[in-house]
Backbone:
Protein backbone atom coordinates (compact mmCIF):
# COMPACT_ATOMS: atom_id res chain seq x y z
CA UNK A 1 0.00 0.00 0.00
CA UNK A 2 2.82 2.40 0.86
CA UNK A 3 4.43 1.61 -2.50
CA UNK A 4 1.13 2.29 -4.31
CA UNK A 5 0.75 5.65 -2.54
CA UNK A 6 4.28 6.67 -3.46
CA UNK A 7 3.65 5.67 -7.07
CA UNK A 8 0.41 7.70 -7.21
CA UNK A 9 2.13 10.68 -5.60
CA UNK A 10 4.90 10.50 -8.17
CA UNK A 11 2.40 10.32 -11.04
CA UNK A 12 0.53 13.35 -9.68
CA UNK A 13 3.78 15.33 -9.49
CA UNK A 14 4.64 14.35 -13.06
CA UNK A 15 1.19 15.37 -14.32
CA UNK A 16 1.36 18.69 -12.48
CA UNK A 17 4.83 19.38 -13.87
CA UNK A 18 3.65 18.49 -17.39
CA UNK A 19 0.66 20.80 -17.07
CA UNK A 20 2.83 23.64 -15.81
CA UNK A 21 5.12 23.27 -18.82
CA UNK A 22 2.31 22.89 -21.38
CA UNK A 23 2.78 25.30 -24.24
CA UNK A 24 0.22 28.01 -24.88
CA UNK A 25 -1.04 28.50 -28.43
CA UNK A 26 1.04 31.65 -28.77
CA UNK A 27 4.16 29.81 -27.61
CA UNK A 28 3.47 27.16 -30.25
CA UNK A 29 3.18 29.89 -32.87
CA UNK A 30 6.53 31.34 -31.80
CA UNK A 31 8.20 27.94 -31.95
CA UNK A 32 6.91 27.35 -35.49
CA UNK A 33 7.97 30.85 -36.60
CA UNK A 34 11.44 30.29 -35.12
CA UNK A 35 11.70 27.05 -37.09
CA UNK A 36 10.69 28.69 -40.39
CA UNK A 37 12.56 32.00 -40.09
CA UNK A 38 15.96 32.52 -41.69
CA UNK A 39 18.10 35.67 -41.73
CA UNK A 40 21.38 37.11 -43.01
CA UNK A 41 23.35 40.34 -42.94
CA UNK A 42 24.24 41.94 -46.24
CA UNK A 43 26.12 45.08 -47.18
CA UNK A 44 24.33 47.91 -45.35
CA UNK A 45 21.27 45.71 -44.94
CA UNK A 46 19.68 42.97 -42.86
CA UNK A 47 17.29 40.48 -44.45
CA UNK A 48 14.96 37.99 -42.81
CA UNK A 49 12.50 35.62 -44.47
CA UNK A 50 9.57 33.80 -42.88
CA UNK A 51 7.98 30.77 -44.55
CA UNK A 52 4.26 30.37 -43.89
CA UNK A 53 4.31 26.61 -43.39
CA UNK A 54 1.25 24.40 -42.92
CA UNK A 55 2.28 23.56 -39.35
CA UNK A 56 1.69 27.22 -38.46
CA UNK A 57 -2.02 27.12 -39.25
CA UNK A 58 -3.49 25.21 -36.30
CA UNK A 59 -1.59 26.96 -33.47
CA UNK A 60 -2.13 30.35 -35.13
CA UNK A 61 -5.88 29.81 -35.48
CA UNK A 62 -6.10 28.58 -31.88
CA UNK A 63 -4.20 31.63 -30.64
CA UNK A 64 -6.40 34.03 -32.60
CA UNK A 65 -9.58 32.20 -31.59
CA UNK A 66 -8.63 32.50 -27.91
CA UNK A 67 -7.65 36.14 -28.29
CA UNK A 68 -10.75 37.21 -30.24
CA UNK A 69 -13.22 34.90 -28.47
CA UNK A 70 -14.30 33.20 -31.69
CA UNK A 71 -16.99 30.58 -31.78
CA UNK A 72 -16.02 27.17 -33.24
CA UNK A 73 -17.77 28.12 -36.49
CA UNK A 74 -15.94 31.45 -36.69
CA UNK A 75 -12.66 29.65 -35.98
CA UNK A 76 -13.28 27.21 -38.83
CA UNK A 77 -14.12 30.05 -41.21
CA UNK A 78 -11.05 31.99 -40.15
CA UNK A 79 -8.84 28.93 -40.65
CA UNK A 80 -10.12 28.39 -44.18
CA UNK A 81 -9.72 32.06 -45.07
CA UNK A 82 -6.22 32.15 -43.62
CA UNK A 83 -5.20 29.16 -45.76
CA UNK A 84 -6.88 30.60 -48.86
CA UNK A 85 -5.38 34.09 -48.48
CA UNK A 86 -1.86 32.65 -48.25
CA UNK A 87 -2.60 30.17 -51.08
CA UNK A 88 -1.15 27.37 -48.96
CA UNK A 89 -2.72 24.58 -51.01
CA UNK A 90 -1.08 25.63 -54.27
CA UNK A 91 1.96 27.75 -53.37
CA UNK A 92 4.74 28.29 -50.86
CA UNK A 93 4.25 31.73 -49.27
CA UNK A 94 7.14 33.74 -47.78
CA UNK A 95 7.27 37.06 -45.99
CA UNK A 96 10.43 38.88 -47.15
CA UNK A 97 11.71 41.71 -44.95
CA UNK A 98 14.54 44.06 -45.93
CA UNK A 99 16.11 46.55 -43.55
CA UNK A 100 18.27 48.97 -45.56
CA UNK A 101 20.33 51.28 -43.36
CA UNK A 102 23.06 52.52 -45.73
CA UNK A 103 23.43 56.02 -47.14
CA UNK A 104 22.13 54.86 -50.51
CA UNK A 105 18.81 53.19 -51.22
CA UNK A 106 18.86 49.42 -51.69
CA UNK A 107 18.18 48.35 -55.29
CA UNK A 108 16.97 44.78 -55.87
CA UNK A 109 15.28 45.24 -59.25
CA UNK A 110 14.35 43.25 -61.20
CA UNK A 111 13.46 41.32 -58.07
CA UNK A 112 12.14 38.23 -59.85
CA UNK A 113 15.64 37.68 -61.30
CA UNK A 114 17.27 37.96 -57.86
CA UNK A 115 15.45 35.15 -56.02
CA UNK A 116 14.98 31.42 -56.56
CA UNK A 117 13.87 28.45 -54.47
CA UNK A 118 16.18 25.41 -54.41
CA UNK A 119 15.11 22.08 -52.91
CA UNK A 120 17.43 19.66 -51.18
CA UNK A 121 17.45 17.46 -54.30
CA UNK A 122 18.58 20.42 -56.43
CA UNK A 123 15.33 21.42 -58.16
CA UNK A 124 15.10 25.17 -58.74
CA UNK A 125 11.88 27.20 -58.98
CA UNK A 126 11.35 30.82 -59.95
CA UNK A 127 8.86 32.99 -58.02
CA UNK A 128 5.23 33.07 -59.13
CA UNK A 129 4.59 36.58 -57.83
CA UNK A 130 6.10 39.18 -55.54
CA UNK A 131 5.38 42.48 -53.89
CA UNK A 132 6.16 45.38 -56.29
CA UNK A 133 7.84 47.30 -53.46
CA UNK A 134 10.89 45.12 -53.99
CA UNK A 135 11.36 46.53 -57.50
CA UNK A 136 11.64 50.06 -56.11
CA UNK A 137 14.56 51.70 -54.24
CA UNK A 138 14.29 50.56 -50.61
CA UNK A 139 15.11 52.51 -47.46
CA UNK A 140 14.31 51.51 -43.91
CA UNK A 141 12.17 48.39 -43.44
CA UNK A 142 10.22 47.09 -46.44
CA UNK A 143 8.12 43.92 -46.27
CA UNK A 144 6.04 41.95 -48.72
CA UNK A 145 4.78 38.53 -49.70
CA UNK A 146 6.48 36.32 -52.30
CA UNK A 147 4.85 33.17 -53.69
CA UNK A 148 6.72 30.17 -55.11
CA UNK A 149 5.28 26.97 -56.65
CA UNK A 150 4.16 24.30 -54.19
CA UNK A 151 6.97 21.91 -53.26
CA UNK A 152 6.76 18.22 -52.37
CA UNK A 153 10.06 18.40 -50.50
CA UNK A 154 9.86 20.15 -47.15
CA UNK A 155 13.54 21.13 -46.97
CA UNK A 156 14.65 23.92 -49.28
CA UNK A 157 16.48 27.22 -49.42
CA UNK A 158 15.75 30.64 -50.85
CA UNK A 159 18.68 31.93 -52.90
CA UNK A 160 18.98 35.73 -52.97
CA UNK A 161 21.39 37.63 -55.19
CA UNK A 162 22.56 41.20 -54.75
CA UNK A 163 23.01 41.54 -50.99
CA UNK A 164 26.47 42.96 -51.55
CA UNK A 165 28.76 40.42 -49.86
CA UNK A 166 28.40 37.05 -51.58
CA UNK A 167 27.21 36.49 -55.14
CA UNK A 168 24.39 34.40 -53.71
CA UNK A 169 23.07 34.13 -50.15
CA UNK A 170 21.20 31.00 -49.04
CA UNK A 171 18.33 31.17 -46.55
CA UNK A 172 17.69 27.64 -45.27
CA UNK A 173 14.28 26.23 -44.32
CA UNK A 174 13.59 24.79 -41.84
CA UNK A 175 16.30 26.22 -39.63
CA UNK A 176 17.16 22.80 -38.19
CA UNK A 177 17.99 21.44 -41.64
CA UNK A 178 20.93 22.11 -43.93
CA UNK A 179 20.72 21.84 -47.69
CA UNK A 180 23.66 20.35 -49.55
CA UNK A 181 24.29 22.41 -52.65
CA UNK A 182 25.50 20.82 -55.90
CA UNK A 183 29.25 20.24 -56.06
CA UNK A 184 31.30 22.30 -58.49
CA UNK A 185 32.31 20.66 -61.71
CA UNK A 186 35.84 20.45 -63.08
CA UNK A 187 35.67 24.00 -64.41
CA UNK A 188 34.83 25.34 -60.97
CA UNK A 189 31.31 26.29 -61.99
CA UNK A 190 28.09 24.99 -60.49
CA UNK A 191 26.27 23.02 -63.20
CA UNK A 192 23.03 24.62 -64.37
CA UNK A 193 19.88 22.95 -63.09
CA UNK A 194 16.47 23.04 -64.77
CA UNK A 195 14.33 25.95 -63.61
CA UNK A 196 10.60 25.55 -63.17
CA UNK A 197 9.06 28.12 -65.48
CA UNK A 198 6.41 30.31 -63.94
CA UNK A 199 4.57 33.40 -65.06
CA UNK A 200 5.63 36.33 -62.89
CA UNK A 201 2.65 38.28 -61.61
CA UNK A 202 3.02 41.38 -59.46
CA UNK A 203 0.75 41.36 -56.41
CA UNK A 204 -0.62 44.48 -54.66
CA UNK A 205 1.99 46.27 -52.57
CA UNK A 206 2.22 46.00 -48.81
CA UNK A 207 4.72 48.88 -48.82
CA UNK A 208 7.00 49.89 -45.99
CA UNK A 209 6.16 49.13 -42.39
CA UNK A 210 7.74 52.38 -41.23
CA UNK A 211 5.31 54.72 -39.51
CA UNK A 212 6.83 57.67 -41.37
CA UNK A 213 6.09 58.19 -45.06
CA UNK A 214 8.59 56.35 -47.30
CA UNK A 215 11.49 58.44 -48.53
CA UNK A 216 11.41 57.05 -52.06
CA UNK A 217 8.95 58.15 -54.67
CA UNK A 218 6.55 55.41 -55.78
CA UNK A 219 4.42 55.30 -58.91
CA UNK A 220 0.82 56.25 -58.27
CA UNK A 221 -1.95 54.07 -59.66
CA UNK A 222 -4.42 55.77 -61.97
CA UNK A 223 -7.22 54.52 -59.75
CA UNK A 224 -5.69 55.52 -56.42
CA UNK A 225 -4.91 59.13 -55.57
CA UNK A 226 -2.65 59.92 -52.57
CA UNK A 227 -4.67 60.44 -49.41
CA UNK A 228 -5.66 64.04 -48.80
CA UNK A 229 -6.57 63.59 -45.15
CA UNK A 230 -6.28 61.04 -42.41
CA UNK A 231 -8.37 60.59 -39.35
CA UNK A 232 -7.77 58.22 -36.46
CA UNK A 233 -10.55 55.89 -35.43
CA UNK A 234 -12.75 56.86 -32.52
CA UNK A 235 -15.63 54.78 -31.16
CA UNK A 236 -18.79 55.29 -33.20
CA UNK A 237 -21.93 56.19 -31.25
CA UNK A 238 -25.16 54.29 -31.77
CA UNK A 239 -26.76 55.35 -35.05
CA UNK A 240 -30.40 55.05 -36.02
CA UNK A 241 -30.01 53.14 -39.28
CA UNK A 242 -33.53 54.13 -40.33
CA UNK A 243 -32.23 57.68 -40.73
CA UNK A 244 -28.88 56.65 -42.22
CA UNK A 245 -29.65 58.62 -45.37
CA UNK A 246 -28.82 61.77 -43.43
CA UNK A 247 -25.33 60.58 -42.48
CA UNK A 248 -22.17 61.90 -44.15
CA UNK A 249 -19.98 59.47 -46.06
CA UNK A 250 -17.51 59.58 -43.14
CA UNK A 251 -20.22 58.48 -40.70
CA UNK A 252 -21.52 55.79 -43.06
CA UNK A 253 -18.06 54.25 -43.48
CA UNK A 254 -17.21 54.55 -39.77
CA UNK A 255 -20.53 52.94 -38.84
CA UNK A 256 -20.01 50.15 -41.38
CA UNK A 257 -16.56 49.34 -39.96
CA UNK A 258 -17.77 49.54 -36.36
CA UNK A 259 -20.62 47.14 -37.09
CA UNK A 260 -18.16 44.78 -38.77
CA UNK A 261 -16.02 44.70 -35.65
CA UNK A 262 -19.14 43.96 -33.59
CA UNK A 263 -20.27 41.22 -35.98
CA UNK A 264 -23.56 43.01 -36.75
CA UNK A 265 -23.83 41.84 -40.36
CA UNK A 266 -27.47 42.81 -40.77
CA UNK A 267 -26.63 46.44 -39.97
CA UNK A 268 -23.70 46.26 -42.41
CA UNK A 269 -25.99 44.94 -45.12
CA UNK A 270 -28.33 47.91 -44.64
CA UNK A 271 -25.42 50.20 -45.54
CA UNK A 272 -24.57 48.50 -48.85
CA UNK A 273 -25.29 50.13 -52.19
CA UNK A 274 -28.29 48.88 -54.16
CA UNK A 275 -25.91 47.35 -56.70
CA UNK A 276 -24.07 45.40 -54.00
CA UNK A 277 -27.35 44.25 -52.43
CA UNK A 278 -28.41 43.01 -55.83
CA UNK A 279 -25.15 41.11 -56.19
CA UNK A 280 -25.21 39.53 -52.72
CA UNK A 281 -28.07 38.14 -50.70
CA UNK A 282 -27.87 38.93 -46.99
CA UNK A 283 -26.72 35.36 -46.25
CA UNK A 284 -24.03 35.49 -48.96
CA UNK A 285 -22.80 38.86 -47.71
CA UNK A 286 -22.73 37.65 -44.10
CA UNK A 287 -20.65 34.62 -45.09
CA UNK A 288 -18.22 36.83 -47.04
CA UNK A 289 -17.83 39.34 -44.19
CA UNK A 290 -17.45 36.60 -41.56
CA UNK A 291 -14.72 34.81 -43.51
CA UNK A 292 -12.60 37.91 -44.00
CA UNK A 293 -9.51 38.01 -41.74
CA UNK A 294 -9.67 41.80 -42.02
CA UNK A 295 -12.39 41.84 -39.35
CA UNK A 296 -9.99 40.30 -36.85
CA UNK A 297 -7.21 42.83 -37.35
CA UNK A 298 -9.80 45.63 -37.18
CA UNK A 299 -10.46 44.70 -33.57
CA UNK A 300 -7.01 46.05 -32.64
CA UNK A 301 -8.02 49.51 -33.87
CA UNK A 302 -7.74 51.18 -37.26
CA UNK A 303 -7.44 54.46 -39.13
CA UNK A 304 -9.39 55.77 -42.11
CA UNK A 305 -7.48 57.58 -44.86
CA UNK A 306 -9.58 59.25 -47.53
CA UNK A 307 -8.02 58.79 -50.96
CA UNK A 308 -10.52 60.92 -52.85
CA UNK A 309 -14.21 61.79 -52.63
CA UNK A 310 -15.32 58.22 -53.29
CA UNK A 311 -12.50 56.03 -51.95
CA UNK A 312 -11.03 55.45 -48.51
CA UNK A 313 -8.30 53.13 -47.29
CA UNK A 314 -8.86 51.53 -43.90
CA UNK A 315 -5.58 50.55 -42.23
CA UNK A 316 -5.73 48.18 -39.27
CA UNK A 317 -3.27 48.69 -36.44
CA UNK A 318 -1.44 45.40 -36.18
CA UNK A 319 2.15 44.75 -35.19
CA UNK A 320 1.92 41.04 -35.97
CA UNK A 321 4.06 40.49 -39.05
CA UNK A 322 2.08 37.42 -40.01
CA UNK A 323 -1.01 39.60 -40.43
CA UNK A 324 0.64 42.34 -42.49
CA UNK A 325 -0.90 40.93 -45.64
CA UNK A 326 -4.41 41.48 -44.22
CA UNK A 327 -4.06 44.96 -42.75
CA UNK A 328 -5.31 47.23 -45.57
CA UNK A 329 -8.57 47.42 -47.47
CA UNK A 330 -9.94 49.95 -49.96
CA UNK A 331 -13.60 50.91 -49.62
CA UNK A 332 -15.58 52.62 -52.36
CA UNK A 333 -18.51 54.86 -51.62
CA UNK A 334 -21.58 55.34 -53.82
CA UNK A 335 -23.74 58.46 -53.65
CA UNK A 336 -27.39 58.30 -54.71
CA UNK A 337 -29.03 61.66 -54.25
CA UNK A 338 -28.04 62.70 -50.73
CA UNK A 339 -27.55 59.12 -49.51
CA UNK A 340 -24.11 57.46 -49.17
CA UNK A 341 -23.69 53.70 -49.35
CA UNK A 342 -20.83 51.15 -49.40
CA UNK A 343 -19.83 49.21 -52.51
CA UNK A 344 -18.90 45.63 -51.55
Residues:
Amino acid sequence: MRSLRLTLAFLILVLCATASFALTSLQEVNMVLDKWTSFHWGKDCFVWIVHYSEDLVDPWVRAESEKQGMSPKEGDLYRQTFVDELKMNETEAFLFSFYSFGQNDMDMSPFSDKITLRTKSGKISAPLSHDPSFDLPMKGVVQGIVFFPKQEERAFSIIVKGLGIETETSFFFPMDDQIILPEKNDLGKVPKLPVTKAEVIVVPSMGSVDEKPPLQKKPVSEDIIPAEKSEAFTPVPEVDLDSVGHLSKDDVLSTFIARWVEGDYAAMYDLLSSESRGKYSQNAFTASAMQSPFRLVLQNGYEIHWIDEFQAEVVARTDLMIMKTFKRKIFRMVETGDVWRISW
